[in-house]
Structures are given as C-alpha cells and as structure tokens.
Amino acid sequence: MTGPGDESPEKIDPQEAFQLFSHEMRLEILFAIWKSPNYALAFSEIQDAVGERDSGKFTYHLEQLTGQFVTEIEGQYVLQLAGHRVIDAIQSGIFHMSPTVSPVKAPGSCTHCGTTPTFEYDELLATVSCSECETKLIEYPFEPGGFQDRSVAEAVSAFDRRTKFLWRLASSGACFVCAGRVEVAYTESAPQIDHDDRYGEFFAADHPALFHLSCHNCSFYSYIPVGIRLLDDPTVVGYLAMAGIDVTTDHLWELPFITDAELVTVQSREPWDILIEVPTETESLTVRLDDDASVHSLTV
Ligand SMILES: [Zn+2]
Ligand SMILES: [Zn+2]
C-alpha cells in the first residue's frame, strides 16, 4: 500500500482517470449505484439500470471503473470515495448549470448605512450589496447545487453559512477543495484579480490588507478580508457574544470587521502587524493580528 510520503502515491494516472469518463455508460453506472440503497448494486441490477443488453460490452465498462471508483464486495458493486467525488462534482452543478438570481432582499442591514442589502447571483458568483450606499459587502463563488431543494431565501442563508465556514477553514491552512496545504499570506493588493481586470469591482478592493490564500496542491486561491480570523479565536468570539454579537448567527455581511476597510489598520508590513477595530453597542474592541495570521491580543 502506498501512503503519505511515498514517492509515487498515484494509483492511476490522473488524466487517464478523467478519460475513463469519456464513455457515457461509465457515468451511468456510477449514477445507478449512487441512486440505490447503501450505494451498492448487483451486476445484473446495474446492467438493467443502464439498459445495456450486450453483456460483453457492459462488463468491459464496469471493469474500467472497478478498483478506484467501484469495488465488488460479496456480489455487490459498491461506490468508493472516488466514485462519490465524481458524482458530487457533477451534482454541484458547476460543469453544466448557470442559474441566475435577480436582486432580492437579503437579511440583516448594511454595515455602512443600515439599509437592507440585496443578494444576486450570476456566473456562479453570489453578491450581497447595498444599493443605498453602492457598496459590495460580500462576493464569493457559490455552486448551483446550493439552489437545489431550497427557496432563494434558504439559498442566501446557505451561502452565508458556507462562505463563513470555507473562509475560516482555508485561512487556517486547509484546502476545502482538495484537503491540501493552503498558504496564508497577507497582501496589500490582489494581483491575480487585478490581472483579470476585476480588481476595481472586487468587494474588498479598498481594504488596506487582505489574505491571499493559495493551495500548494490544487488550483484554489482566494483573496479574503483579514477579519475572518477573529471568528476562530475563542476569546474574541466569547467577548463578542457577551457584547450581543453572535458570530454564528450574524451573516458575514453584517460583521463590520469583515466588510469595513476603515476598521483595518496596518501597523507594520515586516513583520505584518494589523489592528482590527470591532465596534459593539457599548464599547469598541481592538484585535491585533500577528504575522502568522493569528490573534495576538485584544484590548477593550
Ligand atoms: Zn449601505
Ligand atoms: Zn487544494
């Protein structure tokens, strides 16, 4: 068995793995097994489900998947983790769906002016903005799967919870796409976004510092507000709870320390030393982030 640290941990060539699905029957086989109870079916049941009468042909295609995507256990073909992931990638909708949502009211209020913000969705990107002060509060990709079996209001809530979770995870160094190592670095600008000529529209373009997240193993990268790290510090979270701010229920776009550039002050760049002001109803909290993107201290 190969494992972490071995020189050639690849079971099969990744390009060959993708080419396996150039024949539509192989996806049909995976989907048939997925839709059965316990993700397991007998040979004849799969053959019936995909409607292939030629046993030789069917056997050939099933064999191509056996091992990495499907395993035979006591006469049943069982979906393996790789098989699940192929289905999950398709069901996320990013390959074949492009829904749009015209602006609808989003819960909460704009952190700048108090107006009810709007949510809209286009080209796989969800945006929460304020029309009153013409501010983009939060913008991030969201899979079309997020709208399945949900009302738009439920999808807006799911977008909030998911983005909060993904930003926390990635800014702690773990990739939510491939489980790889994410480099977390401060930056003053977002060159890749700039390169794509989108920086002017980027929701956090005016922030004096951002996190540049970049996965060592896959193509994942993001630029996100540095205030996200406050959500992973139990002392800060506890203090905010006592001040009436519940970061588990408040939406990302309702947290001024995430949306408001003016609350972020860069004290030093070498090493990075950042102050984030967190206003509450009674007093203001100042949180200091150190060079390794952790909360260094908080002062009231
Ligand atoms: Zn506003
Ligand atoms: Zn990754």
From TrEMBL:
A matching Pfam family: DUF7351
Start and end residues of each DUF7351 domain: 108-295
Residue stretches making up the DUF7347 domain: 14-90
Entry-linked Gene3D superfamilies: Winged helix-like DNA-binding domain superfamily/Winged helix DNA-binding domain
InterPro entries reported in the protein's UniProt record: DUF7347 (IPR055771), DUF7351 (IPR055775), WH-like_DNA-bd_sf (IPR036388)
The protein, known as: Uncharacterized protein
